[in-house]
C-alpha cells in the first residue's frame, strides 16, 4: 500500500520534471527521516515527494526477533525494485547485512548522535535507579548490557511507538526506558532524556543513528545526485560497524554493540591525519559475560578493520555467547538465570516504531 504525502515540482529550463519518489514507512520517525532527504534534494534543485509504504513491521504486532531481519525494509525494497519509488530511506541498522546487488546505498548522510538514551522518572540517571527498578527496552543488546552493569535492575520488554514508550515512564508503569537518542532527536523530544549513555556504559547497535539512502543500481543519474548527500566520515564508520556484524554472522537484534568514529591524530612530524577508531562488544543475554575489543586504522580500510575486530571477538569466544542468545530465555529462578537481573521473554515486545 502506498500513499503520496507531499509533492514538490521544480521548473528547470522551462520544463517541469517529475519529482523523485522517496519511499518511507508511515511512522512519525520514518517520515521525519525521509523528510530530511526530500528537503535536501529540493534545496539542491531536485523535486521530490514522499510515498508512504506499509511494511510487515507496521502491520504485525509480533516482535522483530520473530518476524525476522529486513522486516522494516523488504516492502520498501520491493517497491523500489518494481519502480514504484525511486529512492528508499531506511534506518541503516534495519537493513540485512548481506548486500543486494539490485540496489546501491548512494548516500549515508551525517549521522545523528548514535548513543542510547535513558528516560527515567524524577530526572534520575542510570546510577541513581534503585535495585529492582523497572527498565523497559525492546533490544536484547541493551538488556544484556544493562544486566552486565550489575545494578540489579528489572529489565522488562517494551512495546509501542516513541510516544507510548515515553508515557510508560510519565504514567509510572516503568521507572525508566532505554531508547536510541537519534530517534528522540529527530522528532524533537530530547527534552525527555535524563542521561545520554556513553559507550563505556552501553555500546550502541552497529550503524545506530545513521540513514541509508538507497536507489536502484541501474540508475547512475540518481546515484550521482544522491552522492552529494553522502558524508565520508559517517560512511567509513558505518562500513566498519556493518562489516563487523557481517563477519559475526549476526543480525540487527543480536546482543552486539559497536561504535566507530573518524578522529584526527598527529604523526611524528606533527602532521594531522585521520584514523578510524572502532570499539565493539558481544554480550551474554543474561549479562553474565561481555567481551570487548577495539581497533584503530585508516578510514579507507574500514571494512577490513570491522572484519578483523570481529575475528578477535570470535577468538575471545563470541560465537558461544551469540549461540546462547539465539536460544530461548531461561526461566526465572533457573540455575542459568542471573539472580539480580531477570531475563524476561523479549518475544513479547513490539517493533511498532524503529527506535530499538
TrEMBL record:
Gene encoding the protein: hemC
Pfam families, sorted: Porphobil_deam, Porphobil_deamC
Family per similarity comment: Belongs to the HMBS family.
Pathway involvement of the protein, from the record: Porphyrin-containing compound metabolism; protoporphyrin-IX biosynthesis; coproporphyrinogen-III from 5-aminolevulinate: step 2/4
GO molecular function per UniProt: hydroxymethylbilane synthase activity
Biological process annotations from GO: protoporphyrinogen IX biosynthetic process
PANTHER family in the cross-refs: PORPHOBILINOGEN DEAMINASE
Biased composition (Polar residues): 334-356
Cofactors demanded by this protein: dipyrromethane
Superkingdom in the source lineage: Bacteria
Domain Porphobilinogen deaminase C-terminal: 237-314
SUBUNIT field: Monomer.
Species of provenance: Nocardia asteroides NBRC 15531
Modified residues (S-(dipyrrolylmethanemethyl)cysteine): 252
Protein name: Porphobilinogen deaminase
Uppermost EC category: transferase
Organismal lineage: Bacteria, Bacillati, Actinomycetota, Actinomycetes, Mycobacteriales
Annotated keywords: Porphyrin biosynthesis, Transferase
Amino acid at each position: 500500500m502506498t500513499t503520496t504525502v507531499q509533492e514538490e515540482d521544480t521548473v528547470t529550463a522551462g520544463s517541469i520534471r517529475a519529482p523523485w519518489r522517496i519511499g518511507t514507512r508511515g511512522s512519525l520517525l520514518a517520515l521525519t527521516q525521509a523528510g530530511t532527504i526530500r528537503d535536501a534534494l529540493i534545496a539542491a534543485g531536485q523535486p521530490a515527494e514522499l510515498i508512504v509504504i506499509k511494511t510487515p513491521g507496521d502491520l504485525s504486532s509480533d516482535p522483530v526477533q520473530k518476524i525476522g531481519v529486513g522486516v522494516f525494509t523488504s516492502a520498501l525494497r520491493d517497491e523500489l525494485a518494481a519502480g514504484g519509488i525511486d529512492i528508499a530511506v531506511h534506518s541503516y541498522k534495519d537493513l540485512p547485512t548481506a548486500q543486494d546487488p539490485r540496489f546501491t546505498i548512494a548516500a549515508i548522510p551525517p549521522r545523528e548522535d548514535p548513543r542510547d538514551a535513558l528516560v527515567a522518572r524524577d530526572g534520575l540517571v542510570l546510577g541513581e535507579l534503585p535495585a529492582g527498578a523497572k527498565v523497559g527496552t525492546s533490544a536484547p543488546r541493551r538488556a544484556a548490557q544493562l544486566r552486565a552493569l550489575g545494578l540489579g535492575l528489572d529489565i522488562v520488554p517494551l512495546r509501542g511507538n516513541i510516544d507510548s514508550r515515553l508515557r510508560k515512564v510519565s504514567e509510572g508503569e516503568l521507572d525508566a526506558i532505554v531508547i536510541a537518542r537519534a530517534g528522540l532527536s529527530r522528532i524533537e523530544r530530547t527534552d525527555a532524556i535524563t542521561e545520554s549513555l556513553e559507550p563505556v556504559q552501553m555500546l550502541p547497535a552497529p550503524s545506530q543513528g545513521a540513514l541509508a539512502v538507497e536507489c536502484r543500481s541501474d540508475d547512475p543519474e540518481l546515484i550521482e545526485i544522491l552522492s552529494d548527500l553522502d558524508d565520508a566520515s559517517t560512511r567509513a564508520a558505518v562500513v566498519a560497524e556493518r562489516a563487523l556484524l557481517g563477519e559475526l554472522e549476526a543480525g540487527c537484534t543480536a546482543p552486539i554493540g559497536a561504535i566507530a568514529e573518524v578522529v584526527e591524530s598527529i604523526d611524528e612530524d606533527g602532521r594531522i591525519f585521520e584514523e578510524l577508531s572502532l570499539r565493539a562488544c558481544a554480550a551474554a543475554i543474561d549479562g553474565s559475560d561481555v567481551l570487548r575489543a577495539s581497533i584503530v586504522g585508516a578510514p579507507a580500510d574500514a571494512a577490513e578493520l570491522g572484519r578483523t575486530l570481529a575475528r578477535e571477538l570470535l577468538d575471545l569466544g563470541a560465537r558461544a555467547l551469540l549461540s546462547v542468545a539465539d536460544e530461548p530465555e531461561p526461566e526465572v529462578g533457573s540455575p542459568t538465570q542471573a539472580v539480580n537481573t531477570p531475563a524476561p521473554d523479549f518475544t513479547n515486545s513490539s517493533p511498532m516504531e524503529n527506535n530499538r
